[in-house]
Amino acid sequence: MSENQSIKPITTEERNNLTIGGCDLAELAKIYGTPLYVIDEATLRGICKSYKTAFKDYKNIKMMYACKALCTSAIIRILDEEGFGFDTVSAGEIYTVYKSGVDMKKVLFNGNNKSKKEIELALEYGVGRFSVDNFYEACLLNEIASEKNKTAEILLRITPGIECHTHNYIKTGQTDSKFGFDLTQIDEIISLIKSEYKNLHLKGLHAHIGSQIFETQCYYDEVEILIKEISRIKKQHGIELKEMNIGGGLGVRYTTTDNPPSVSILAEAVTEAMHKYALEIPTIYIEPGRSIISPSGVTLYKAGSSKIVPGGKKYVAVDGGMADNPRPSMYQAKYTAQVVNKLNHSQTETVTLAGRFCESGDILIENIELPPLEAGDIICVFNTGAYNYSMASNYNRVEKPAMVLVNNSHSDIIIYRETLDDLISKDCIPDRLKKND
Ligand code: LLP
User: Fold this and answer.
1) CA of 291 to the centre of ligand 1 (A)
2) Confidence band, pLDDT 50/70/90 cuts, at residue 167
3) What contacts 24+ positions apart, CB below 8 Å, involve 306-311?
4) Is the pLDDT score of 277 beyond 90?
5) Residue with CA at minimum distance from ligand 1 atom 20
6) Ligand 1 centroid vs 163 CA: distance in angstroms?
7) Which of 233, 244, 369, 428 would bridge with 348, disulfide CB 3.0–4.6 Å?
8) Which domains, and CATH codes, for the chain?
9) Cα distance between residue 289 and residue 268, in whole Å
10) For the segment 69-106, what is each residue's pLDDT rounded down to a tens digit?
11) Residue 34 and residue 300 in contact, taking contact as beta carbons nearer than 8 Å
12) 256 φ, ψ to 5°?
């Protein structure tokens, strides 16, 4: 089993209270307050090792972490130590990675509408690869690179005509996607690069077929399409592309009904397709986000008010919700939770965990069986490492939670809790509105 197949961090233990990384979660809630994001270093390093082991026989593999899942300086440091590169999509992510001391050659800059300012920054910091998404960007990147007397090493982002969702996937000739060149546009962009865009150096192709993927067949098909395209490009344009980025997307187990494949099964599908179709084995980039960071993260909440509505349904409100985890309200995402301080309660009741934000749709978990909750109980929601903090907002002007890293019975803060002053720190009052005391 690899870590992405586990709902809980691998160090989770039931002692007096629930513990992760040897740290009592009720204690952590007391020390750092709630809501609190907790990241288990052992699970994170474990999944990094699973990826490295799974692909160890494939010599030309480059592991990139998709920063969009969770981008903080300490997390970047761990991934850097584990030998990962970084897939970034904004100046903010590039800046975080740069400030964390990463060799910028290991960084790829992705995105469908990179701004001039972002491209300038990326060139200045020397990011290793640009994934060029469209005609406009190719022209802009070439222009900025030539102004700076630099050459940008690029991959072309293509839409391979595969759409892969959790439980099924489709292959379509034509893909309706805002990302990338479709297969019919590749010849035109390559001709432009050859004839006009002298400051772009084309190294390979890039695709990403979806997220929270449970089927490895779609990776197999993706690799086949990319390889066939690479050999067609060689024949037609005389350009040898030696790199191929297959994106991210491996799923995780939010609830017992989710059954994602292990990293080694994914690696088998990729390498099998590679050996079947490729005459010369290219360098593969793989850029997972969710499967790397999600299982190592949990969020702690404190139970507060509760109510029973006519018909008997019981709501218990927690002190966070859609601002720290927008996934249930955005995608109807399901989560698993446990009460940290009531491990030995045999009795359970069905409750709906509601968030504290002013929207009826702010429900964290619908109809979950938990021991009867009282105000002050600490609830641990599992698998919140990815796309929780990274998509968090200050809705209702609520401070974003802190994040701690746990390991070997020790906890370190890696993001401070926002303060009320942080919330107004960017506010300005025009002179004419200022109150004269
Ligand atoms: N590479 C590219 C080009 C991507 O667009 C993405 C994710 C990844 C890699 C990483 O995919 P992962 O391994 O994390 O599935 N907010 C959504 C997920 C959006 C994913 C966007 N792209 C969620 O919370 O489910």
Assistant:
1) 10
2) low
3) 306/351, 306/373, 306/375
4) no
5) 211
6) 13
7) 369
8) 40-293 (3.20.20.10), 297-424 (2.40.37.10)
9) 19
10) 999 999 999 999 999 999 999 999 999 999 999 999 99
11) yes
12) -65, -15
